[in-house]
Amino acid sequence: MNIQEAKEEIIRTIKVYTARDEDGMFRIPSIQQRPLLLMGPPGIGKTAIVEQAAAECGTGMLSYAMTHHTRQSAIGLPELATHQYEGKKYTVTEYTMSEIVASVYVYMEQTGYREGILFLDEINCVSETLAPVMLQLLQFKKFGTHKVPEGWIIVAAGNPPELNHAVREMDMASLDRVRTLNIEADVTVWKQYAASRGVHPAILSYLEMKPEAFYRVVEERKKKEFVTARGWEDLSTVLKEYERQGLDINRYFVEEFIRSPEVAADFDAYYRMDRTCMGGYRISELFAETVEPEEKRCLLDRLSSAGPDVRCMFIRHFLAAASEEMSRVGGLLRRETRWAEVKKHLSEYLSAHQAEGIQGFLTGRERELSIKKEHGLLKGGEERMEQWINHQILARFVDNSAESCRNGAEEKEKLQKHLTAGTQLIRQLYGEGPELCDWLEGIRHHGDYRLCGYVCPEYGSFSEQKRLEEQLKKQVQEMEELYETRNCI
């Protein structure tokens, strides 16, 4: 399965394992809640989908890399205790609380989450002394004598032995106690994720034309090369900051993230061509409709006669301009909503805690923000938004110097006009071809699509057409594999 299908299965598992009956008891007893085991190559986003699934289900998530743990930290340290059996006193060995289980209780106390995911990464790379402990965990949800709290689901992840020489082959007894999800790298699914994360348009257009460069692992005696989804996303993040600061970008910089000299050199050449081709099209201004009519006609003439490579580049850069604006407006709308919520809470707090006043309210917010940050519970941009709200509270109620807020509704309406104009522009350039379909798909997969309220009637027919094409391709591929298997037999 691909990474998106794995995420959906994790979400379904959370819903099923946390379901309760009319008496408040779990419908599936804890002992029968088989842990999930995500098996897949490194860098494809296994940790990320667990975080996303937990966030979407409104549950907590605590992550541990098992390679960093010893037997003592997993099951606790031994200590001597005295017990009486049949009238005689004996000195026996007991264990302190498991560091991992203790951290779950601390997390519950600090965040208020009573249910969540305990994510154990690199589970098949544990030391030999920890292997029996892992078997006990998978079967009984216990580290030593200490149980993982009820309501907490165990999700583990590992790499296949052929991609990691440190891996210990899991035996049948262990595999018989888990639900294994075998995950493969899928560039199509990753591009949807990448579009929502604002990955650099040059990377997206490059992988559109060369999907075989998305993921590669070569491990030989004198040669180790790898290209991963994590590498492309990290390259994008740093690449955009290099561009902002006007720093030099070359093949050696790309190789720091894309650990295949061949792919790194190829992308470097493509990136230079992308910069040369797209630099003169004034894409951000085209999207914002600020280009003079005469110059716009010249630009559109050049774009309409461009080859497939340039068209692909243009669509990705045009989507990047739209994505930036959607993120800005989405952030503004979320900020307005959150500001209204906090003002209501502030009013209630001041009514109940007149002595503490504004400062007491702010202190509580800062403490809550610190706990969320420590446990990785803040989504992208949330910390900045909460700090802005704290500044607004100080400015409005203490300093009387609040900054004026832009109207989210007006910005939303302006964005919708730009998106509609962008759709018309691409139809004018390329008709109802694949470029228009890519544009509509890209807009649809942006994280703030629903919040921005853009409705495109054409999307439904294009989406259905693309779905049928993908289904047909999959059926053809399955039939080809079936015939190959029969020929081998």
TrEMBL record:
Residue stretches making up the AAA+ ATPase domain: 32-184
Pfam families: AAA_5 (PF07728)
GO molecular function: ATP binding; ATP hydrolysis activity
CDD domains: AAA
Name the UniProt record assigns to this protein: MoxR family ATPase
